[in-house]
Amino acid sequence: MKKVLLIILISVSVLILIGVIAQFLFGYSLNKRLEPKIDPTLYSEIVRVRVAQSDQYKFLPTDIPQNAVKVAFFHVPGFLQGGDVLALRLTLPPERIVSLLNELEISDRTEITSFEGIPTPYAYPSYDMKKPDSKNLFKGVSPLPDGFRVFLYKSDIEDIKKNWNHNVFSFTAVSINRKEVVYFVNIW
Length: 188
Description:
This protein is α+β, with helices and mostly antiparallel strands. 34% of the residues lie in helices and 23% in strands.
């Protein structure tokens, strides 16, 4: 009888240990998957996956341009009530900035002059950004500075003002003076 009880006790202990290890691995894996990404080498794969899921991402470049002088990237994957946020900031040669601005001006995209009436987007990751921590996911990402021309992509400011709980805010912002372009998507 003692032998049977010992076998049952060992079996239950092993099952509990396996359950604890599995729960730890699941939690660790989920945490890694949901943490902010700032490594530009991850950009292309993240965009590829997002474009396959939604056409709200189709305005993003599929790859970081080879002629980019500086690159800053920030992505927080959406989960449950948290929105999916992606920002790509590039310093490009002046001729590419002018060309991009010309393309945007002749496109059917709406140009806005302010973010008045909606929450200011944190869309400007710093070039020397360090990995954010869980207490401040947007550490190292600031609001778009003055001097950018902002062109919306499938976003309606008036709709965002009315439907603040679930919406999409995406744009391309260009600054000739800074020689920068910022691509931004927030789907919540």
